[in-house]
Design a protein that fits this description.
This protein is 42% helix and 11% strand. By secondary structure, it is an alpha/beta fold. Helix 18 links the parallel strand 10 and strand 11. Helix 12 crosses helix 14. It binds 2-acetamido-2-deoxy-beta-D-glucopyranose (NAG) (6 copies).
Length: 601
Amino acid sequence: MISLSRPFLFSAILLSHTLAARAADTFLWDRLTPSQDLEWVQCYSTFQCTRLEARSINLRHDIKFLKRFVQVPLDYSDPNVGTAALAVIRLPANVSEAQYRGPLLFNPGGPGGSGVDSLVANGPSFQAVLGSQSNQYDIVSFDPRGELSEYPLHLMSLLSGLDDPGVRYSTPIAVFFETDAERALWNAAAPFASLNASSDAIPQAWGHAHLLGAIAAQRDTSQILKYLTTDNVARDMLQITQKFGFEKLQYYGISYGSVLGATFAAMFPDKVDRILIDGVLDSDAWFSANLTIEVTDTDKALQTFFDGCAAAGPDLCAFYKPTAVEIADRLTALTASIRTQPIPVLTPAGYGLVDYSLLRLSLLGALYHPFSLFPTLARGLAALENGDGSILYSISQEPAFLCDCANNTASPPTDDSTVAIECGDAIEVTDSIEEVTEFYQNAAKTSQFAEFSVGSTRVSCAGWKVYREDRFKGPVAAANTSFPLLLVTTTADPDAPKAAALKTQAGFPGSVLLTQDGPGHTSLSAPSLCTIGYFRQYFLNGILPPPGTVCPVDATLFGASANSTSKRAALSADEEEVLAALKVISDSVLPVITRKMRRRN
Ligand SMILES: *[C@@H]1O[C@H](CO)[C@@H](O)[C@H](O)[C@H]1NC(C)=O
Ligand SMILES: *[C@@H]1O[C@H](CO)[C@@H](O)[C@H](O)[C@H]1NC(C)=O
Ligand SMILES: *[C@@H]1O[C@H](CO)[C@@H](O)[C@H](O)[C@H]1NC(C)=O
Ligand SMILES: *[C@@H]1O[C@H](CO)[C@@H](O)[C@H](O)[C@H]1NC(C)=O
Ligand SMILES: *[C@@H]1O[C@H](CO)[C@@H](O)[C@H](O)[C@H]1NC(C)=O
Ligand SMILES: *[C@@H]1O[C@H](CO)[C@@H](O)[C@H](O)[C@H]1NC(C)=O
């Protein structure tokens, strides 16, 4: 099993040790001729890959050109504009023609998450989660236009010594910088910071957003950026489905993937076979560049850290105090101390400062994946009190910039699609510094974490300049979809609160909302056999959970007696396998989502 999980936790040093082992797993997408029909070739051992022309014009796939922009954008309302080539991957079905149920598409969120990476890492785990009948489906994912898989490319460019590491997946790709060295310089000059880090944080972020918006617009000489919007990705999903010979979409999308799924349902209500969206954002808020509602439950998620730590005790929670209030106070004191005195960290894997922004970002990141990250977060906070920032640094650092600069070869390529999609989708934001400051202050009434995604998205979009007039603008709703949507939320999702899921549900009469009773981003953040049971019923049998269903989580925060209860002992082998598979998926997809959050500058 190829594990592509948690790329950002790997240091350069660790990475180099894994290179030899992974050599056989790399796959050169550029060697594939884009096709109008799905012609599959073996890739990544057990998978099959193809590149799909979304339109009937042949793309001249020019490697050199891929270093920055592809020649020809794709416009569904004007076929003459050109094509996009989507990298599609599937874990093939293995049943007779009569039993075959077509493609089940997965989108891992972001936006900017690579479906290819995600499926390579998780395909077999998805099969385990869906159960024995999952072999009736082709489990399929794709790199949305503009987006780029990272991890295999990372390996490829390091491994193969290609003098042109322009081995790209889907095209066109959103890339703003001439070289990755230029991007690294940009990131160093305009680091992702809390809007509350200092009095000039908002003016600085606003200024950088305008600069980045200008760079993106000026270098978009092929004029592709305006075509990367979510409505076009929804159209692409219909194309992919039809290439498999099916008329209606079967889809599982998490986080931003919920915006994609709901947008599809609004645009093509009669093409819905199954749409399960998990970690549901308010799509209308998305299309108005106002994510304030998405942090409705973020502070509640932080409260679960305090409550869980107090309940777990000092052995399991290193940041323990007898009451939740005392733990909250302890964190406030630590935060105030770090604000005035950042901690330098120097480890074999890298170096930097644990400052206010990194501390806050570490906290927020842990809220996405509490069942996995809270113990480490607690250890990191306790160590930080003693002047040791290495644990927090290691869980939040960005990967080091790898560049064989002497040979002038680039580090792994990176796409800039997140801001292009997020802002290109939305209404045109023209906020002044005063206006974004007011916007942030208003959002901060909803959550103390408005300093990140809510505020930074608004600021980024204030600098964005590339829009397509005829893009889909909502409302994200449909009176009658050809099959009801299943929506899934948790009780304390830091980025996709129940309020957003309820708003989305109201737009799709007949849809059902399932609530998983625990904190975390998407249901994947915690093991729940109950939730998975409903997933299977929905996809395999078309049965929706009863309205108002709440599923318990089969774990406790900080691992407190999670595996010593009688309930746990009663699990069957199949259930154990499902829980193990869920952990593989969450360990893989959630770090990518939190990492993409930081691309919003
Ligand atoms: C399908 O499953 C059968 C039985 O497990 C196996 O022998 C065969 O190799 C599989 N075929 C494919 C294409 O995976
Ligand atoms: C953003 O949405 C919030 C509600 O979620 C609302 O209070 C606020 O006025 C909105 N801001 C703008 C600029 O539309
Ligand atoms: C860099 O260049 C040197 C000298 O030409 C060569 O020996 C070395 O192998 C090159 N490194 C890579 C990664 O290509
Ligand atoms: C900004 O940081 C200060 C100092 O840590 C804190 O008191 C304040 O509540 C923060 N503001 C917001 C809106 O979270
Ligand atoms: C909803 O759509 C289905 C099929 O797409 C159709 O049979 C049904 O009559 C529609 N219901 C309403 C209320 O429009
Ligand atoms: C859970 O099980 C593992 C190994 O089976 C054991 O090492 C660990 O101590 C157990 N944890 C608890 C909280 O019982």
